[in-house]
Amino acid sequence: MLPHAMTVVSGSFCSQAFWDGQHHGHESPCWFCGNEVFPDFSHQAWNCPFWPDRPATPEDIAQYHLGWPSLSDSKYDHEVLLHLAAVRRALLEQRHPET
Fold it and tell me: Which of 24, 40, 77, 82 would suit a FRET pair with 69, their CA atoms being 20 to 30 Å apart?
């Protein structure tokens, strides 16, 4: 999970919406929940019903997007980063199912 966490904190997380726009020129349903939504970072990381056990949505913008700790609760900070790393790993598995 460490490589995925490093990718998240460095700002290199690429949502399905970004990937679709760059490689296919169109949007597709969310790979995780199958809903006809714009599968951007906000949906896939914080709103998608595929992740029912995700931590509460961070209020801190850096933590929301990059998983950077807010320093107010180390357990929660860790859960946020692990969640974002898991979402990133799942996205890669959808993009490259053969790896």
Answer: 40
DSSP assignment string, the chain: -HHHHHHHHTT----HHHHHHHHTSS----TTT--SS---HIIIIII-TT-TTPPPPPSSHHHHHH----SS-HHHHHHHHHHHHHHHHHHHHHH-TT-
List the structure tokens of 64. 């929301």
50 contact partners, CB below 8 Å, separation of at least 6: 30, 32, 33
Whether the pLDDT of residue 37 is over 60: the answer is: yes
Whether the full predicted model's pTM is greater than 0.85, yes or no, is: yes
